[in-house]
Design a protein that fits this description.
Two copies of one chain form a homodimer.
Chain A (H helix, E strand, L loop, with lengths): L17 E13 L3 E8 L2 E8 L4 H8 L6 E10 L12 E12 L16 H6 L1 H4 L3 H23 L3 E2 L17 E3 L7 E3 L5 H9 L4 E9 L11 E10 L3 H20 L8 E3 H8 L13 E2 L1 H4 L5 H4 L3 E7 L7 H12 L9 E5 L5 E3 L7 H11 L6 E7 L1 H18 L10 E5 L4 E4 L4 E4 L28 E6 L2 E8 L4 H10 L4 H14 L7 E7 H8 L30 H7 L1 E3 L6
Parallel strand pairs in A: 3-5, 6-9, 11-17
Antiparallel strand pairs in A: 1-2, 1-4, 2-3, 4-5, 7-8, 9-10, 10-22, 12-13, 13-16, 14-15, 14-16, 17-20, 18-19, 20-21, 21-22
Chain lengths: 587, 587
Amino acid sequence: MYRTNTCGELTLKNKGQEVTLCGWLQRSRDLGGMTFIDLRDRYGITQLAFNMETNPELCEKARKLGREYVLQAKGTVIERASKNSKIPTGEIEIEVHELNILNKSKNPPFTIEDKSDGGDDLRMRYRYLDIRRNPVRRNLELRHRMAMLVRNYLSGKDFLEIETPMLIKSTPEGARDFVVPSRMNPGEFYALPQSPQQYKQLLMVAGMDRYFQIVRCFRDEDLRADRQPEFTQIDCEMSFVHQEDVLNMFEGLAKHLFHEVKGLDFDKFPRITWHDAMRRYGSDKPDIRFGMEFVELNDVAKGNGFALFDNAELVVGICAKGCAEYTRKQLDALTDFVKRPQVGAGGLVYIKYNSDGTFKSSIDKFFSQEQQKAVADRFGAEPGDLMLILCGPAMKTRMQLCALRLEMGDQLGLRNPDVYAPLWVIDFPLLEWDEETQRYYAMHHPFTSPKPEDQSLLDDESRWGDIRADAYDIVINGVEVGGGSIRIHDRELQNKMFHTLGFTDEKAYEQFGFLMDAFTYGAPPHAGLAFGFDRLCSLFGGADSIRDFIAFPKNNSGRDVMSGSPAPISQEQLDELMIDVKQTAKQ
Amino acid sequence: MYRTNTCGELTLKNKGQEVTLCGWLQRSRDLGGMTFIDLRDRYGITQLAFNMETNPELCEKARKLGREYVLQAKGTVIERASKNSKIPTGEIEIEVHELNILNKSKNPPFTIEDKSDGGDDLRMRYRYLDIRRNPVRRNLELRHRMAMLVRNYLSGKDFLEIETPMLIKSTPEGARDFVVPSRMNPGEFYALPQSPQQYKQLLMVAGMDRYFQIVRCFRDEDLRADRQPEFTQIDCEMSFVHQEDVLNMFEGLAKHLFHEVKGLDFDKFPRITWHDAMRRYGSDKPDIRFGMEFVELNDVAKGNGFALFDNAELVVGICAKGCAEYTRKQLDALTDFVKRPQVGAGGLVYIKYNSDGTFKSSIDKFFSQEQQKAVADRFGAEPGDLMLILCGPAMKTRMQLCALRLEMGDQLGLRNPDVYAPLWVIDFPLLEWDEETQRYYAMHHPFTSPKPEDQSLLDDESRWGDIRADAYDIVINGVEVGGGSIRIHDRELQNKMFHTLGFTDEKAYEQFGFLMDAFTYGAPPHAGLAFGFDRLCSLFGGADSIRDFIAFPKNNSGRDVMSGSPAPISQEQLDELMIDVKQTAKQ
């Protein structure tokens, strides 16, 4: 070893010891008689001391070193004159008697500090320097720790981690696949998995019973902010279980992570049906760190001559406690907020419940004080509160109000990243109508089972929208961190489902034939769930972006600016693969 | 849960308990008054008993079930009349009072037994049924267990598992890449990693110090038997270490696996230089479960008028203890063996040391009894031994003799799969001459460091073949299970290495520029190693084929016969990707 100790472990207990440390020069301070160097490695920082009087030659050498030089220092652990209580090694320093430069460094393009002066692009281009910074390093350490916790927990529950193939068959249903031309089978392609869905179901048919895998998945989507073309899932599947068993198992996993990583313990996670979640929060992933639930107002709001309300399918609002003092300017800003294209509301109605018991609203013209009182009572509002009301088509309005609720939560500091509010959203709709293609799509995926009591509705096309699925999401702080479903294990029901989704028998068999075949050989009842691991890590790490928790992420064009991938390949490679790049795509 | 217990856990301790089991019908026996069903799940087999007298209806139902039906049985644990001591549950059975068919099954295409009647192709096509068989299931369980052991061991040594990208940049050096067309960047391609080599070195530059990853890798090679286009590595890298530290660390990991999985404990693994391995065993992955080391005979074999010997660069042989009684037929078979094209020798010379002290050989014409005695003395042979001798160009002859040595090991039962003989092979040559392209290639990869004492030879092209690398392989029972090297961390040396390999500055920078750039910002001394995880599992599982340890392997054409991948994709997909399949490849 080049070193006897790390830069994070020496304290007064080691006083007098001869040690060798290695690391990077974080900073150096030249105080005339003394030169100090902060030597950094993954484990911490230790101060090296050089004395101009006792060892001028070495001290001169130390003074010439630049930032991020890689050093090996041998010396004695001594007590510091001026201690630094902020770091574990702050009571000691190393009186150096030998110093070796293991490697030089150019001056880094940004500062290697917790708060760097480097912009996002620059830091991504030099990601290997960015990772030297504490916040990024800690994120990757957290990710490692969480992966270990997940694996050991599930392994302890008899789950087996089984690796499924990365080179699979392309299935056009769902998002777009990345494909891989096969040289040995010209004209044919593999696809990279969007998830190991079919393979994990096959493993259940294979009797493997409890499967998991922390696995890379791929989706060739137009990248929205904070989406990655490759991402990691904790993918799980179980046999001989009901929904209750699955929820309990993975609630157990989530609680274990909260306990180990955050020191937090939870009672049973609340559960809410998808319909209730939409009605109460306008979202299938409600942030329940705070209340401010939706209050539906049709009966008290309609019939007062205010056409917007009278003509609306739904009048619905939230009550912001203690916000009656909001200024004109603040209210205008809220109106602007809901009118932004991303939210899309036509306008915002407010009612202030003044502390003197009177009401002041944007609809004073139409609503008497008593009528406003009736609305306030419906909200359970008290003097000092501010009521914010939207109206329009029911679902659209709910989603607009959801955005406003989250905005108010932010403004009132109700969305503290150190507070965690997990819940289950259950009973998702089985099918989702798509206006564009004029057909139903599986909301979850085509293998999700309708609830047994709703299965008969599959025979009545007019009721397809009402069918509920045995599907569930785990949501934390308004973020969907996982989801899954009871799977269809009966081939007949699976066929019916494919027909519902507009597959002909041939098309279904062409795409899912091997799974359908497998189901004829004794498929057990089974169910599963997958967590988005990148997202889960970012949530536990208290950050918004998943990129901060991926060692080498890609940018929004799917590009790795560090390595310069993707890139053109040689004509020889193309020839071997028997493919051509279309003329229009050539550069 | 559909069940209260598994089929592998009930014993007499549970006598009298009401239980519910789920599983697959392994076999049923109709004995007239009684019907017995072996119910199987991942955990074992439990016998279900149905009594025609006490419950004729249920018994009739049970008789109608086919193989591999999925059943749920409720009943009472009772003591068996005739016990089966071969299985843990053999002392009990379930007196069933409720039986539910959870799913039917077609008759499987092969028997779900330890020894199946299904051929390889059929079992691969129905791999989900193949996995139901104990041997395959146990292999996957072993693989899971070994992955957990590796992760927990390395994590305990401060290694962080860090996920590196799967969509990376293509690097023509080395084996052929699988490529992935980028839709968002038309005309450009990602490559799938052959290993995370460059990323793990960047993580060292990033200060991460101790990295590992159990990671999928890809190689688009013409598949030899038992090669897979996707395979799994335990990929590791460390900073601030010398070769000695790396060997000790991963020897520790291997010992840990041997101890935990096989109950075997080892002293320090032997180490042998590459040159010695070639000289003593004719292989860089010698099987040292048995001796039979090479004996070089030039001085005693030449000059006796036997032209083949006299003209050969090397005369070399092995001594097979106690084989002097080999018949003419056996000796002819050995001659045929070495003459096979895969071995390629021109012929085989034998000398029998008869038990009466005389010699009988295929070169009696040229070698007197005394001269044969001199050869025998060189071998340290005793009466009763058989000496087998080859001659020709040194390296070729050694490799031929290696094949013969292994064949003799097999014939003499010296290669017991329950015996494990690990060792390190060190000091590999840095460069390998390729006749075809008339240039040197990196034997390991272009980032491997020459031994410090040999670095000066880089300046003398005539000596390039003599340069030794700080590169090492871990070999068990003649199988290379892992390998690695000290990396070059100095940019100047790396540049020199690229030049040696025939890269221009531009070409090197185009391909490895980001790594070379990274090395200018304080790269620490570092080194690493990767284990072939599939191979490691098969070795610990006592099997020859890695396919038995992969849940869903591909065949020798890179095809998954179960899912039918690869397959053509739609024109729409091709259009989106801006690529065409060449006309000649279309089917």
